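Structure in, sequence out. Go:
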């Protein structure tokens, strides 16, 4: 079964922003809000300031990591966000240290495509915030791009190129 996950951003932030965009306070891994599909905020195509042809908004997540299906859709697509202090105005900057923050159907991209090594408190469980983009088919993954196209990204895609493509507003345009 093919599943896709919304891209909430990239960690570390390709532009080097350290406040307001990413938080490392979550006990489930870094959380960023530099992508087009983020929690608790409305973002439209106009937020792809790096260009719609340079911004990934969904990535494939249908394979396994090791022997486990570690996908962000564990609770069902677009189930939402959970955190003890969640409020209507809550954002990345409001994540408190050690917060049990997690979300479904979103990921902050941190690892290379089809990586087979999990990291505890980041990508080792379905509900952590840095689940890995992966697939069962050979060679890479399919992605949905903000310009409406679908692109296949090879396993060999440089991690820095991937991170730049997952941050919609970092000023680091690239060709992928």
């Amino acid at each position: 079964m093919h599943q896709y996950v919304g891209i909430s951003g990239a960690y570390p932030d390709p532009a080097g922003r350290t406040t307001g965009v990413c938080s490392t306070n979550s006990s489930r891994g870094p959380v960023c809000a530099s992508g087009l599909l983020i929690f608790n905020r409305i973002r439209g195509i106009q937020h792809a300031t790096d260009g719609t042809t340079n911004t990934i908004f969904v990535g494939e997540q249908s394979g396994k990591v090791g022997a486990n299906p570690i996908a962000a859709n564990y609770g069902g697509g677009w189930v939402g966000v959970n955190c003890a202090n969640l409020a209507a105005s809550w954002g990345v900057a409001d994540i408190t240290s050690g917060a049990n923050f997690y979300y479904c159907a979103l990921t902050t991209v941190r690892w290379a495509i089809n990586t087979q090594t999990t990291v505890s408190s980041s990508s080792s469980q379905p509900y952590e915030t840095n689940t890995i983009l992966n697939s069962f088919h050979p060679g890479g993954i399919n992605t949905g791009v903000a310009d409406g196209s679908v692109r296949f990204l090879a396993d060999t895609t440089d991690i820095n190129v991937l991170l730049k493509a997952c941050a919609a507003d970092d000023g680091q345009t690239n060709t992928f």
